[in-house]
Amino acid sequence: MKSLEELKAIRERNQGKVGVRSENETQTRVVVGMATCGIASGARPVLTALSDAVQKESLAEKISVTPTGCIGLCQYEPIVEVIEPGKEKVTYIKMDPEKAMEVFELHLKQGQAVAKYTLAAQQL
Prior knowledge:
Shape: globular
Largest sheet: 4 strands, mixed
Structural class: alpha+beta
Oligomer: single chain
Radius of gyration: 14 Å
Order of helices and strands: HHEHHEEEHH
Number of strands: 4
Strand content: 15-25%
């Protein structure tokens, strides 16, 4: 089963960072909803794209990308939450790998939230 193997590989890549994450209060956390509804909506390629980008750019010390269970907003899946120390959480909705890369470049690397993809923008 290829998808299970992909998830195991992602978990193994990120597993060594668990201790660092819990101790590092300056690290940005990127959480991708990977419950059944998230996976069915396409969260797996979003998680992979973000994880790969962080690894490729050698940003694992500054940014952790982790899967989580249900975020509780099924109609907006795939969901990516960016949690930066000292700032309000930003929730990105209806993500795909291309949007995720835009968030990576603008928000995670340059510090500018991509408002058009946020839950707040959807609720206006």
